[in-house]
């Protein structure tokens, strides 16, 4: 079962409200989830929007807001919701397109020129404002990560090693020691997890433009690790073939393999090699402000 789009929550909301009972918004969301979306996995139920709200809760809340704009529900008092007569006699296939002529809110989504095609309009109309924001951020993030990986592949190998070590330090893995650029035995850096260096993590960073990390690369890395550590991190800008991953999993050492996609995800998360360009504020009405009257 997929997480419903916001307009797919219309009928479950109205079905829950059809008795005429007044619901607290939080109780309504919980009951809609329990009655209609109990098959969602724990992972789906924990999925969040960019603003940190639970995605399923956010979509039900937007569904409620759109139904209010269309006259299907109303808010008898702050924090409560109840169906209207229109809501009790709704269409059996009510969706966002049925509300288009009932609320000026949807003027926001109408295209300004006749050049836009029907598919674009349809896709926009089934996305809540929060979904549109999240999708926009995702596209920007994906573009940044694609460019970041291309930059990494174009750096010299020694600089790439520094990038990996800086990332691991930013992630909280302690001070690192760069090894000599020749005769390092396949080890590009060593991280001391404690101040005395009793716990060490050995690092191997391979910048590849083409091809994958092979089993022999992992085997050589294991062979280069001295007897005073059993932890290693192998990082590449490309990928690992299946035999390489199997060799890492079956080794007596604990070896973490980080491919190009995972690498740029981590760099993006910990702001390594990127910077914040713009911060946007999302505002909403302050209900407490109006409680003072």
From TrEMBL:
Single GO MF descriptor: restriction endodeoxyribonuclease activity
GO terms classed as biological process: DNA restriction-modification system
InterPro entries found in the cross-reference section: Mrr-like_N_dom, Restrct_endonuc-II-like, Restrct_endonuc_IV_Mrr, tRNA_endonuc-like_dom_sf, Type_IV_Methyl-Rstrct_Enzyme
Residue ranges occupied by any Restriction system protein Mrr-like N-terminal domain in the UniProt entry: 6-89
Name this protein carries in UniProt: Restriction system protein
Superkingdom of source: Bacteria
Pfam families noted in UniProt: Mrr_cat, Mrr_N
């Amino acid at each position: 079962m997929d997480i419903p789009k916001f307009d797919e929550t219309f009928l479950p909301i109205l079905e829950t409200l059809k008795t005429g009972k007044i619901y607290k918004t939080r109780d309504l969301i919980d009951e809609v989830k329990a009655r209609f979306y109990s098959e969602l996995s724990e992972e789906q139920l924990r999925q969040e929007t960019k603003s940190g709200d639970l995605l399923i809760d956010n979509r039900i809340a937007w569904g409620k807001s759109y139904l209010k704009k269309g006259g299907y529900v109303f808010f008898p008092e702050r924090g409560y919701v109840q169906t209207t007569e229109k809501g009790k006699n709704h269409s059996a296939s009510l969706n966002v397109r049925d509300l288009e002529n009932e609320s000026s809110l949807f003027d926001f989504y109408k295209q300004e020129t006749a050049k836009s095609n029907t598919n674009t309009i349809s896709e926009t109309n089934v996305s809540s404002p929060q979904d549109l924001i999240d999708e926009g951020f995702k596209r920007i993030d994906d573009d940044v990560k694609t460019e970041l990986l291309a930059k990494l592949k174009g750096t010299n190998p020694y600089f790439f090693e520094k990038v990996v070590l800086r990332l691991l330090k930013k992630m909280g893995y302690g001070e690192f020691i760069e090894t000599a650029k020749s005769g390092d035995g396949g080890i590009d850096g060593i991280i001391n997890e404690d101040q005395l260096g009793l716990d060490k993590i050995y690092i191997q960073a391979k910048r590849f433009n083409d091809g994958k990390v092979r089993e022999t690369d992992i085997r050589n890395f294991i062979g280069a690790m001295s007897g005073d550590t059993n932890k290693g991190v192998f990082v590449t800008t490309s990928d690992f073939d299946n035999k390489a991953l199997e060799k890492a999993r079956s080794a007596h050492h604990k070896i973490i393999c980080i491919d190009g996609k995972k690498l740029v995800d981590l760099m993006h998360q910990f702001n390594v090699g990127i910077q914040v360009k713009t911060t946007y504020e999302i505002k909403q009405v302050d209900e407490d402000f109006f409680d003072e009257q």
